[in-house]
Amino acid sequence: MVAQYSEGFPCLKQDEKDQRLWVDTSSGFDEDVERFYQAVEKEDIEFFRISEKYARGLRLLKDLSKEDVRKKIKYIKAQVTGPITFGLSLSDQEKRPIFYDPTLREILIHHLSFKARWLEKRLHDLFPGIPTIIFFDEPALSAFGSAFSGLNQEDVTLSLNQCYSAVKGLKGTHCCGNTDWSLLLSTELDILSFDAYGYLENLSLYPKELKNFLERGGILAWGIVPTSEEVLKEDVQSLVNRFQKGVEALSKEGIDPALLKRAILTPSCGTASLSIPLAERVCYLTAEVSKRLRGS
């Protein structure tokens, strides 16, 4: 997740043999940072472009942008790595995560914000007139609140909100594990994507925050289709039942069912690690469950 969005980060080093990335602030750092901030100040979005070497899927989007296909698309979504996950996964030469360095944290927030802006613009160029959704994926937030994370809530919230503010369209975050959901629900995101198959009960522990989020127009993206071997045990009706039970459970916490049903249905996480047949089944079930619930 880090390598794909690391292109252009100041003083980034790569060891292809060990498949390791790190930031070396001991040599040439000032010069690299000066070039970086010149691009930021000029709002040079192309400086932060994502080349096809780093994101081969962008090339495939050109096929979807053909007019006959484009007519069927209501929204187009893409994602970048979130600032917490990026900052905890990428270290300096002392093997210290860069999120804990205020200077490097500020750089990474600008870096990811401009990556998101470039990606959003690219989607608008390919799909003119179609609303965009940009996610900042944050699997590392599943560690928030543990004795080992060392994360400060204020730093996390500020970092996320700064990234969200760079996006003109809808913005969201996906966390594929359990976390302190009150933190994400209190940020400025529009869409909260969660693993509803595995962690619905955990979200129900935050009824007040969830109610406030939904009442201000927030949307839940229910990851109701498992992205594991569990998908072989499920069918369309079993997943419809699971969603309806989830709505019922959250309704008992005082949340308006109508707000809960204003939802997006998704796989519980990405499918990159699955075999092609399993990934296809996940996508098929997601589409069919959505159709069933919409009554179409």
Description:
- The protein has 296 residues and is an alpha/beta fold.
- The protein has a single domain (3-294), classed as TIM Barrel.
- Helices cover 44% and strands 15% of the residues.
- A 6-stranded parallel sheet has the order 3-5-6-7-8-9. A 3-stranded mixed sheet has the order 1-2-4.
- Helix 7 (181-185) links the parallel strand 6 (170-175) and strand 7 (191-194).
- The longest helix has 25 residues, at 102-126.
- The radius of gyration is 20 Å and the shape is globular.
- It starts with 11 loop residues before the first strand and ends with a helix.
Which key features would you list for this structure?
TIM Barrel; six-stranded parallel beta sheet; three-stranded mixed beta sheet; alpha/beta; single chain; globular; 296 residues; 44% helix
Distance between the termini: 36 Å
Question: Structural class of the helix and strand makeup?
Answer: alpha/beta
Low-confidence stretches: none
The tally of strands reads 9
For the CA atoms, what is the radius of gyration? 20 Å
Q: Write the H/E string, N to C.
A: EEHHHEHEHEHEHEHHEHHEH
Shape by Cα distribution: globular
Biggest β-sheet, characterized? 6 strands, parallel
Content of β-strand: 5-15%
- Helix tally? 12
* Whole-number mean pLDDT: 92
CATH topology: TIM Barrel
CATH class: Alpha Beta
Widest sheet: strand order? 3-5-6-7-8-9
